[in-house]
Amino acid sequence: MIRPLNPRMAATVPPPVMAARRWLDGITFPEDRPLINVSQAAPMDAPPEGLRAAIAEAALTETAAHLYGPVLGLPELREELAAQWSAGYGGEIAPGQVAITQGCNQAFCAAIATLAADGDEVILPTPWYFNHKMWLDMAGIRAVPLATGDSLIPEVQRAGRLITDRTRAIVLVTPNNPAGVEYPAEVLAAFTALCRRHGIALILDETYRDYHSGKGAPHALFKDPDWADTLIHLYSFSKAYRLTGHRVGAIFAHQDRLAEVEKFLDTVAICPNQLGQRAALWGMRNLGDWLAGERQEILARRAAIEAGFPALEGWHLLGAGAYFAYAAHPWPVASDDLARRLVEEAGVLLLPGTMFHPEGDTGARKQLRIAFANIDAGGIARLFERLSAFRA
């Protein structure tokens, strides 16, 4: 055992995706039955060729692409985000209300660092995104679980009963990770009003907004001229432009809060990835039609998931959307044990619901997350074949 060790770090769970990958150690999958990996929500393909060419050109011709840049990100990228978000959401967002981060996880960490201190509380709907819970644990901030019931949509009345004098924020993710569900605009508006009444922040993570199934803006929160008094909005370029390895995210917040965010970012990264930022900017300016096609493909995979689930005897699809399906299995086996067995017996790697709930949550023992965006229609069909044949 290493000594000394921060007890908060010791009490934080290992990264769930990495833990699940270790289940593969020592297992060989036959060529005619390769592993179906639906454990992680990440594009498996490289960015489109035009975007890769833009990255290469920047690397070869722009000296600034290899140097420190502004802590809060490239001014051009902040301006582009402010302009496109203002147009898309029908509100007024200034470039000074946008900062660029090393991925959306860093945006969340930076936001929390400005909001909460040791012993404070942040409300997380369950099932939660495990990295949000991990950061709160490491920071000594209590994650207060907000059960979402069968609908997987958080209820504002239930959330209101959890607010105390130590509550600093409520975190919502839509389309949701891990449940896939899309939160209705009226739910988001009600949570904004609740947070405003209590003087706390609403952190809205819209990493998967580009794959929302509805037309137009998913909510009207930015139409409020005082949105930045309550709302902290997070975004990721990883999924939209397949830039997972380049680590580019964004945070939209009050300019005064971003001055505090700057302290955090300067300490942990100094500046966002320079080539990644240029790639994100090029993508925003040139890949609108391509991204629309990517969205249609993800929606088609979602439809294939929804169409195939009724054939799985005893299974129940709880939620589906963006990159994820969240389901209840029929077996008298805890989901963490079942997930390990599915690797060896069915050649399927997915994540158990126990990774997205507080320890001891009985409902989580029946739940599994499937990151279906990683497989095409043929892969989805093969996934259903293996799940149908599996017996616990």
Q: Outline of this structure?
A:
It is built from 13 helices and 13 strands. The protein is an alpha/beta fold and 392 residues long.
Characterise the protein shown here.
The protein is an alpha/beta fold and 392 residues long. It has two domains: 7-46 and 290-389, Aspartate Aminotransferase, domain 1; 49-287, 3-Layer(aba) Sandwich (Aspartate Aminotransferase, domain 2), CATH 3.40.640. It contains 13 helices and 13 strands. Helix 3 (49-61) packs across helix 10 (274-286), helix 4 (75-89) packs parallel to helix 10 (274-286) and helix 5 (104-115) runs parallel beside helix 6. The protein is globular.
- For the record, what CATH class of the largest domain applies? Alpha Beta
Number of domains: 2
CATH fold annotation of the largest domain: Aspartate Aminotransferase, domain 2
**Which stretches of 5+ consecutive residues score pLDDT under 50?**
none
* CATH architecture annotation of the largest domain: 3-Layer(aba) Sandwich
Q: Biggest sheet: strands side by side, in what order? A: 2-8-7-6-5-3-4
- From the spread of the alpha carbons, the general shape counts as globular
CATH superfamily of the largest domain: Type I PLP-dependent aspartate aminotransferase-like (Major domain)
- Strand residue percentage: 15-25%
What is the terminal separation in angstroms?
37 Å
Structural class: alpha/beta
Quick one: biggest sheet?
7 strands, mixed
What is the residue-averaged pLDDT?
95
Radius of gyration: 21 Å
Q: Which range best describes the helical content: under 10%, 10-25%, 25-40%, 40-55%, 55-70% or over 70%? A: 25-40%
Q: Give the oligomeric state.
A: single chain
Order of helices and strands: HHEHHEHEHEHEHEEEHHHEEHEEEH
| Total of DSSP H or I helical runs spanning 4+ residues | 13
Number of strands: 13
